[in-house]
Every structure is written in structure tokens, then in C-alpha cells.
């Protein structure tokens, strides 16, 4: 059987791409077709792998978030593995990245099999993220703070843009990424928030001092991903993050969400401890890997 790899073009192709993503990673929110289309840009490539006309795999090549390398993702439906589809996808994505001028590729793997696959192409571990999960039960609203207010972005939409400058820009370097994330104001508006009613900002006087909230999942309305949580340095140690997170957990309980989850970087002990304190338990470990381009394949 030969694999055919083709570019995803139509909405039906994008849905098929999502189908593979959801089958391979049922535990993580998948962007909608509209959200995927919004992320389209020159150099970003979505592909489908077909066996006998049936979509069995999907791939993505894009600029990494910090802009330093190409992020490559080959995914194969669990029922169609070990037939060379992943290899064909990854080779094709890597050729595309080389043609774009990249010298390094990044990839993430969530299981040992995928790590072995990636290692064959020269990928080595560069970082780890751990999933933290929290079941949502009866979640009391936290006591109203006295030194600051908690408001949702739905109540004050202008706060989200203010929070970019006042909270995101000064705190993103604290996330312990090996290379600082490059997040533009436009990315912040588009990718870092979903429903403004589920996003909360701590405000002291006229300033945003912290953010936390949930990214909702239309495919799984019972689950939500924890959005970026951050508090300005001078406000740390005063329970601002815990109060923001408890507010989002109370919102989750009121809105039919039974589980929330987040990914925390290795090294970000403060965030892990805060989550443990809030009752989060540990889930999957995701390994970030890097390889020089062009890829070299082990025989
Ligand atoms: C990684 C993944 C794409 C592999 O897809 P695949 O179609 O099964 O891969 P291939 O058939 O091309 O495998 C090529 C080689 O990788 C290695 N490999 C793949 N799966 C392996 C496993 N479970 N255990 C050990 N080695 C494995 C083997 O050397 C294999 O060659 P072989 O079958 O001749 O022994 C698939 O497991 C997947 O979708 N994982 C989740 C997404 C992901 O993490 N992708 C990696 C990021 S690029």
C-alpha cells in the first residue's frame, strides 16, 4: 500500500485533519476549522496522509512560537501505525521546512512509541511539560479581595488588550521556555482567549495585575484547558493567582465543565505547586524534541 500525502485545502480536508488530531490526542482541545483557517499563513502547511483513499494521518509544519525553528508534527491514526505513514509524513514536512530555510526542527511527543519514532530522525529531548488535571466539583467562589478586583473580559472587554502590555509582556519571560516566546498583541487577541466570559483579569486601580481563565472546547464542552495564568511580579505572594484560578473553577462548575487541564513547563515549580495546592493531579508528560535539518534517518 502506498501512502498519498496531499495538502489540506478545503473545509472537508480541515475537518479530516482535525479527525486525526482528535483520534491521536483525545485529551487536548483541537482548534476548530475556523480557528485553523485563522492561523493559516505563508509557510504553514497542513497535510493529509491517505491509504487507499482513506485519511489515516495528518501533518503540520509551521514556524515555532519563538520563531527560531520549524515545528513539525506527523500524526497517524492508532489503527494505521507501523506501516511507514509517519515516516512519509515527517519526511515531507521536513523537506518543506528545509525549503523554507529552517536549520532546526522541533516536535513534541506524548508517548514512548512516538519518542522512539522521533529519535530515529535525530530528535533529542530539549524540554518537558507535564499535564496537570483538576476534576471540577462544587467550587465555591473565592472571597472578594480587598486590594484588587476580579472582572471577566466579558464585563470589560478593553481589559484584554491592556493585560497584554501590563501582564503578558512582563511575565511571559518567566515561563521558563528555553527561548522566550514571541507573542504579538494580535496573537494575544486571537490565540490566548476563547470565551471572554471564561477569562478573568485582576485589576488594581487602573492596572491589570493578573490574568487567568479557561479556553473552552466546543468538541468537548465538559472539558476546558486552563489559559495562561500570570501575575505581575510585584503582586506575587498575595494569592492573586489562586483567587483568579478559583474564580475560573467556580465559573467552570457553573457552566457544566467537569475537568480542566493545563500543561506546565519543567522548571516552572511555582506554577506546579500552585496547581497542586488547588487540587490538580498529574497526567501525561509531553517531551519537546529538537533535530537538525535536513533530518538524518537511522538505518
Ligand atoms: C509517531 C507516529 C507519527 C509514528 O507513525 P507510524 O506511521 O506508526 O510510523 P512508521 O510506521 O513510519 O514508523 C517508522 C519507524 O519508527 C519507529 N517506531 C514507530 N513506532 C514505534 C513503536 N511503537 N515502538 C518502537 N519504534 C517505533 C520504528 O523504527 C519504525 O520502523 P519499523 O516499523 O520498521 O520498526 C505515531 O505513533 C503518532 O501519530 N504518534 C502521535 C503523534 C506524535 O507524537 N508524532 C511525533 C511528532 S513528529
Describe the fold and architecture.
This protein folds into two domains: 3-129 and 287-292, 3-Layer(aba) Sandwich (Aminopeptidase), CATH 3.40.630.30; 137-257, Gcn5-related N-acetyltransferase (GNAT) (Aminopeptidase, 3-Layer(aba) Sandwich), CATH 3.40.630.30. Strands 1, 2, 3, 4, 5, 6, 7, 8, 9, 10, 11, 12 and 13 form a 13-stranded mixed beta sheet that branches. The longest helix is centred in the N-terminal third of the chain and has 15 residues, at 85-99. The chain has eight helices and 13 strands. It is of the alpha+beta class. The model has no long low-confidence stretch (mean pLDDT 95). Strand 8 and strand 9 form a beta hairpin. The radius of gyration is 20 Å and the shape is elongated. The protein binds coenzyme A. The site of coenzyme A has 23 residues, from strand 4, helix 3, strand 5 and helix 4.
Task: Using the 3D structure, state the CATH architecture of the largest domain.
Answer: 3-Layer(aba) Sandwich
Question: DSSP strand (E) fraction?
Answer: 25-35%
Indicate the multimeric state: single chain
Count every helix, treating DSSP H or I runs of 4 or more residues as helices. Answer: 8
Unreliable spans are none
Q: What's the CATH topology name of the largest domain?
A: Aminopeptidase
Find the structural class using helix and strand composition: alpha+beta
Supply the CATH class of the largest domain. Answer: Alpha Beta
Ligand list: coenzyme A
Shape: elongated
- Main sheet attributes: strand count, strand direction, barrel closure: 13 strands, mixed
- Following the backbone from N to C, one meets helices and strands in this order, namely EHHEEEHEHEEHHEEEEHEHE
Helix content: 25-40%
Q: Give the name of the CATH superfamily of the largest domain.
A: Gcn5-related N-acetyltransferase (GNAT)
Mean pLDDT: 95
